[in-house]
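dumping this here so i dont lose it again. seq + smiles for zinc ion
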Amino acid sequence: MKLLLLLLVVGIAFWMIGARRRGPRVPPPSSPSQAPAATAPATMVACAHCGVHLPQPDALVDGDGGLYCSEAHRRAGPR
Ligand SMILES: [Zn+2]
């Protein structure tokens, strides 16, 4: 019974090591679906409050079309 328990523990340990090795595998960089999105130049916009430049998809848009870098600056409004 003790041997069975030991085999079970060893088996789980090997299974976890195997799962960890398979886990963080990243897709090859030459993947056709991801390469254009990563290399495509994002339109840069300036925050209406502090003026920091950020990619347009990351900007928060106000009701009247103002672009902001963060929720705090969106609430603070244009400067
Ligand atoms: Zn800002």
